[in-house]
């Protein structure tokens, strides 16, 4: 660890899924600022992944775009091989990909018993099986190196429940349970596994568009539920994830950190 940077990553290679936009992009850029040996940027849209990888290269840090759908285990394994060839073995994994996956949207509309079962797989695939697949592909690198970090971005819907998002919430809750379990398996290898649990996060967008959203009555009503009267920013997520990826967090594992402006305190 650097004497001057508490969050120094010691030259380790990191993989960030869903890294082509919003919080994923911010995470990838922040890891690059703290002595990562390389960043592999995943997104299911190749152009987004490459654009962020180019930003990182401009910072003087090696980067590789690895576009694939996290629901595809073989694609995750192929990405691991490509990363080893270009950057070296990844020993940091940030499972950030989420929402409803490629082509889906996360908009609460229906009670659980009103939703078609075909819709369940969109939520389970990206938010639960995606975490399984990427962890399965990249954890062996960490075990072999006897060091590493796995950080999974989850949701307060899985921590406290959210109406009309039952399957999504259960997928996020499942990911938390998975992380707690693998934390106990990985501790002997000096690998930690933790979650960051988000509430409402504002996507990156032009200031004018953001101002219109923030001025609406619906947004003001939502914001009244937050102790800190704003929604989360991508940089909020990047800061906490980077801490959990760094040596500063070496005695923390199996935990879920709420990052929510006081929306739902941890008990």
From TrEMBL:
Top-level lineage group: Bacteria
A Pfam entry, by short name: adh_short
SUPFAM superfamilies, A to Z: NAD(P)-binding Rossmann-fold domains
Gene3D superfamilies per UniProt: NAD(P)-binding Rossmann-like Domain
Name by which UniProt lists this protein: SDR family oxidoreductase
Family recorded in the similarity comment: Belongs to the short-chain dehydrogenases/reductases (SDR) family.
């Amino acid at each position: 660890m650097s004497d001057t940077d508490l969050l120094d990553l010691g030259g380790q290679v990191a993989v960030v899924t869903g890294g082509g936009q919003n919080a994923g992009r911010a995470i990838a850029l922040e890891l690059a600022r703290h002595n990562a040996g390389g960043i592999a940027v995943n997104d299911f849209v190749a152009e987004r992944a490459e654009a962020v990888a180019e930003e990182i290269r401009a910072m003087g840090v090696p980067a590789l775009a690895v576009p694939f759908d996290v629901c595809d285990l073989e694609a995750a394994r192929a990405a691991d091989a490509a990363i080893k060839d270009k950057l070296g073995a990844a020993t940091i994994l940030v499972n950030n990909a989420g929402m409803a996956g490629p082509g889906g949207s996360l908009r609460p509309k229906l009670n659980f018993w009103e939703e078609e079962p075909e819709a369940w797989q969109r939520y389970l695939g990206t938010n639960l099986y995606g975490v399984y697949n990427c962890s399965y592909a990249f954890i062996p690198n960490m075990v072999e190196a006897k060091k590493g970090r796995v950080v999974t971005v989850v949701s307060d819907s899985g921590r406290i429940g959210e109406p009309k998002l039952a399957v999504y919430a259960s997928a996020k809750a499942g990911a938390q349970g998975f992380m707690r379990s693998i934390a106990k398996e990985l501790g002997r290898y000096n690998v930690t596994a933790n979650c960051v649990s988000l509430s409402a996060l504002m996507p990156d967008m032009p200031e004018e568009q953001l101002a219109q959203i923030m001025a609406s009555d619906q947004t003001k009503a939502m914001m009244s539920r937050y102790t800190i009267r704003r929604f989360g920013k991508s940089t909020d997520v990047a800061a906490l994830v980077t801490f959990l990826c760094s040596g500063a967090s070496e005695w923390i594992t199996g935990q879920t950190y709420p990052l929510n402006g006081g929306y739902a305190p941890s008990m």
